[in-house]
Amino acid sequence: MAANPHVVRTACPDDAEAVVALRAVVHPYLVRGVESTRQMISEPAPGEHWTAFVAEVDRTVVGWVSVYRHGRTSVTGFGDVSMLHVHPEHRGRGIGGSLFDAALGHLRPLGVRQLRAFVSTDSLPYAEKRGFHPSRPVRYSVLDLRTAPRTPATAPAGARLLPLTELEPRRLHAAHVAASADEPDDVPADALGYENWRYEVWDNLGLDRTASTAVEVDGELVAFSLVKRDGDRMWSDMTATLPAYRGRGLAHLAKLAALHRAHRAGVTRAYTSNDEANAPMLAVNARLGYRPVAKLWSCLRDLPATG
């Protein structure tokens, strides 16, 4: 018997619950709750021309992709086809190809000339058939928090730990920009404006401002660890230190404090990801007890201009 046909359409806010359920099957190590997903669909990031598509079979969401022009970099014409995934029971029927074609149709008029997609090792042959080539491996890791992390060591002299509830957002944005400028990536993260940062970080419904922790040294904000939460799961969105203060254990201190606070608030599993070239953060995570659960590849493809 032939499989029922699929339909690809633009995602709407009411798809949020089905999209989160699909993500839990395909990528259980990714953390974004229903309300945060609904917010992302209904109020996309400014200036990135973000949109998403879902694939349905018998009115059930079985596939998803989001796509946008990258807004964190000064590199022009760079776009992301983000986390295209299809339910395992519906693969091999052209659904992934239909979603990808919809994504390309959205990006071409925007002047995007290079695409990036993140795919699993098993999916690399499929990506290569679509014109992508592997660029960088990214490690996804988990920490079981059912055994509470120890209370962080006393902060060094002149330093103090504080939750985001005690911070003015522009201070955190400035630290975020300075700390991420040399983060390993396919393109430099050198153009994260305040409006986009506020959308992606500060106003994100998943951000736990009580668990998220910053480090001040002599009154300067020098390190931080951000927590985005979905029930008893959390995502370490970014942990970083200003270049001039690295090598002092401040990223470890901030992340340990954030994990401890999140655990006290009911989080049992903590997830994160790191570029495999980011040896310092991989070392911090190993010291904290994280273990690898998946590896994805960033893959790149040129998108020729059409006449």
Automatic annotation (TrEMBL):
GO MF terms, alphabetically ordered: acyltransferase activity, transferring groups other than amino-acyl groups
Family matches, as InterPro entries: Acyl_CoA_acyltransferase, Bact_Acetyltransf, GNAT_dom
Transmembrane parts of this sequence: none
Keyword field contains Glycoprotein: no
Ranges for domain N-acetyltransferase: 6-149, 159-307
Domain of life, source organism: Bacteria
Entry keyword Cell division: no
Entry keywords, A to Z: Acyltransferase, Transferase
Protein name: Acetyltransferase (GNAT) domain-containing protein
Species: Micromonospora inyonensis
